[in-house]
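Consider today's protein:

***
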Amino acid sequence: MTWKMENLLIAVSLIVVTSSAKQTFKIAGIVSTDQMGRALEDAVRIANQDMPSNLQLQALYIKMDANPIRSALNLCSDVISKGIHTVIVSKPENSDISPPISVSYTCGFYSIPVIGISARDSSFSDMTVHKTFLRTVPPYFHQADVWLKMLEYSDWNQVVFIHSMDTEGRMILNRFQSKAEEIMIEKVIKYPSGSKDYQPYLQQLDSLQSRVVLLSATEEDADQIFRDAEALNLTGEGYAWIVSEQALTSDSVPEGTLGLKLLHGTSEKDHIQDCVSLIKQTVKQLFNGTLTQITDTPTSCKNSSSSWQAGNSILQALLAAKLENGNTGKVAFDSDGDRLNPDYYIQNVKIENGQKKLEDIGYYVDPKVSSNALEIKDSKIIWPGKKTTKPSGINISTELKVVTLESVPFVYTRKMTGSDSCNWDKNERLCPLVNETTGIREDYCCWGYCIDMLIQIADMVNFTYSIHLGSSGEFGSYKKVNKTSEKKWNGVIAELINKEADMIVAPLTINPERAGHIDFSKPFKYQGLTILVKKTATESELDSFLQPFEDTLWILVALSVHVVALVLYLLDRFSPFGRFKLAKNNDTEEDALNLSSAMWFAWGVLLNSGIGEGTPRSFSARVLGMVWAGFAMIIVASYTANLAAFLVLDRPEASITGIDDARLRNPNEDFKYATVRNSAVEMYFKRQVELSTMYRQMEPRNYKTAEEAIQDIVNANLQAFIWDSSRLEYEAGQNCDLITVGDLFGRSGLGVGLQKKSPWTSKISMAILKLHEKGNMEDLDNKWILEGRNDCPEKDTTPATLGLTNMASVFLMVAGGIIAGIILIVIEIAYKRHRGLKDKELGLARNAADRWRGNIEKRRTLRQTLQRQREEQERLARLATQKKPGVEGNGSAPGRGPVGQGNGYNLPVDHPPPRVGHRLSYTEATGGQMYSPPSYRTVTHSATINNPVYMDKSAEDNYV
C-alpha cells in the first residue's frame, strides 16, 4: 500500500497550502437518534486526544429521515453547507427499510466519502453508482460464503436454492455458484417478492432428491414461504433449512432451521466508534502530522461542479485503511467498499413453551483471519421434526430406474411376443424399449453379465429397480447442438443427466469427459481397446522355399561361396606347398588348386554334393576348407529346419499388427476401419492428438452398434473394428474366423454410471468391491465371457524368417577361417624363405668343394699328359734321326713319309700329325679325356703346349 499512500500524499499536497492555523477535519454523522449523535461527538473528542497539536477532528450530526428527499435536503442544508469532509450514515429510527440511497447519491456527486454502518443492500456494492460509499457491515449476499462452509461441514453436496427474483436474490445465487464448485444445485426456485401464495413454487420440493434447502428472503416473504412450506409438509423430518439473516427473524420460521446473525450487526454505537477510529488513522497518515488546510471543500448543493479532488484522495485512503482491533472486529474494505472479515453467529431455531428461540450453536470467522473458520456444536442442534441427529440431506428412493443397452455378452435382449414372459429363474428381466421417433413401447427381456451383477448388487445394497433400454441405442457423447456453440450429451448419458434414469448398468467405459458430468462406481471390469480383424490364409507361392531366409541372408550366402572359393584359390596359389609329387619315385608334380576347382569345391561342400574334383593342397587352404564345411553344415541345417516349419505351419494370419500398423496410421481407401459412434472409443480417438488422422478417417464410417460392425468384419466389408477388448475377445472366441491383434491400448475400466452426487455411488462401489473380493466377478467372467468358446486352432505359429542377426555368427566363423588361412600362408611363405636361404648356403659350399676337387684333378691330369707328350716327342725325335730322310720339310713342319699306316706320331690314323710349333688344345693334349665332376655339364678347357722346337726351354714354359 506504500505506493498508494505516496500517490495520495502527492495528490493532497497539490490541494493544500501551509497555514499557521490549526487544521480541522470535519466529520458529519447522519444517525438514527440523538443518543447516537452524542456517541459520535464523544468518539471524536476521545480521538482528538491522540491527534497532533496542529490537527483536530470536528463532529456534527443530524438525524436520519425515513423520507429520501428530506434526507437529501437536510444533507445539503445542514451538512454540506458546513464544509464537511466525511459522512457517517446510519438508518432511520425504528426502520430498516429505507437505505441511505439519497445520501449516497448526493455525496457521491460532490466526491464526499460516505461510510455506511447499517445499509446491507447489494446495490451499494456497485461503485459505478455509489462512487464514494463504503460500509462497515457486509452486504446480505455475502452470507453465501458462510452457507458454503456450513454445507462442507455437514458433508452435504446437493441443495435446492430458493431466492427472490430481485437483485438481492440474483446476487446471492451468483456468489454461491461462483464459490461452490463442489456443491450441486439440484434445483433453483425463483419466486416473486410480495406474493401471497408460494405453494406452486414449493410443491416441486417433494419430488426432488435433495432435502437441503437454502432460502434467501426478506422477513415478510419468509413469513409466507414458511407457512406454505409447513402446509406442504416440507419442514418436517428429513429436511434441513438454512436461511438468511432476514428470514431467520420471521415469526413463522420452523423449528430446526439454521441461520446467521452478524456479530455486532445492530450495534450502531460500536460501528460509529470504529468509523471515527478509522478516520482518525487515515487523516494522520494523510497529513503525516503536518499542519495543512484542505481547500475547495463543497459548501453548497447549488454548485454544479462535482470535481473535488481532495475528496477522491480521502476516499482512496479510507479504502486502503485497516483497523485491526475495532469494537466490531477487524475493519477493512474490498475494492467495492464492502466490509471484509465479518464474523457471524450460527443460530438454531427452537420452540420452547410455544415461544420461538434463537440459540447460538456456533460461529464463523473469515478463513483469512483464523484457520478454524467454522465452529458448530452439533449436540446443541435441534433438527426439523425435533430430531437430534443430522439428516442425510437427500431423499434416497429405493426404487431406482436403470437404463441399459444391448451389448453381448454383457446384455442380451430378445423381443417378447404374444403372451411370452421373461424367465426369472434364468435371471431374465423385463426391459421395455420406447421408440425414440414414434414413442411406441416394445417389451424385451434382458439377461447377461450386467443383469446378473445388478441382481447381486440390489440384494446387497437393498434397493429395487426397473430396467429399460436406452431409446437412442447409444452410450452418448458430448457434442454441439444444431451447429451452435452449446454442447449437450446424448444417448444414455443424457438420460442420467436429465434425471430420466438413476443408474446405467451396461459396459460403460469410464473416461474423463463422462466423469465430469456423471458419477462412476468402482470399475467392475478392467479392460482396454483392441482391434478385431478377419483371419487371412497365407498363400503358397513358387518361391516359398526361399521363405526360411531373408533376401539379405540369401545374398550373403551366395556371396560367401564365391569369396571362400577365391580365397581358397589364392591360398593354394601362393602357398609354397601348393604343389607336390604324386609318388616318391616319380618326378611328376601335381598343380595347385585352380580357381575353377576352388569354385566347385566351395559349392560342393555347401550343397554336400560330392562333385568337387580338386581339394586344397596347402595347410592354410585346408583349414579354411574345414571352416567352410562347418559353415555349410550350420546353414544347411538351419535352412532345413526352418523350411520344414514353414511348410508344416502354414496357418492363417492377421492382416495388421496393431494400432501402430502403417495401414491404420496412413490409411487408404482399400483398407477400412471404424468404431461405434457416440462412444467412449470415439471420444478416445478424438482426444488423442497422435490419433487425429485415424479419427478423421473413421468418423464418417463409424457404426451405430458394435453388432453391425462385427457382422461387416465377418462379411469382409470392414477390414478392422476397434472396440472394447472384453467384447472383441469374446467375439474372437465364438468365431474362429476372427482374431484380435496387437497389444491393448487406451486402458480403462467399465463402471456403473450414476447421477452426479448420487447417494448411491459409494454404496454401489462398496458392493462391487465386495463382489471382487468374494470372486463373484470372476465367476461372471467364466460364465459369460470365457465359457462357450469354440476350440479354434492355435494362433499362427509360423516361425520368424531368419535374418542376418540370427546367422551372423556363422559368417563370422567363415571370416575367421579366411583370416586363419591368410595367417597360415604368411607363416608358410616365411618358413619357405628361411629354408631357401639355408639350402642356398649349402649349395654354394658344395659347389666350392666340387670346384676345388676339379681343379686338383685337372692339375694331376695335365702333368701326366705333359709327361707323355715329352716322352712321345723324345721318341719321335729319336725315330726321326734313325730314318732316311723323306720329303723335306719347309723348315716349319717335319717331313712326311710312310711309316706303316701312321703319320709318324703316336696318334690315330685319321688324326693329322701335329705341326712343329703348333699349340695343342687341351683335348688334343689329353686325348679327348677330361675329368668332369658328377651332376655338372662337361666344360671344354683349353691349354697351351710348346712345340717340340721349344723343348729346350724350361719346363715351366709348358703351362695350362
In short: Residues 713 and 831 are 76 Å apart (CA to CA). The first strand starts at residue 16 and ends at 18. The radius of gyration is 63 Å. DSSP finds 26 helices and 34 strands in the chain.
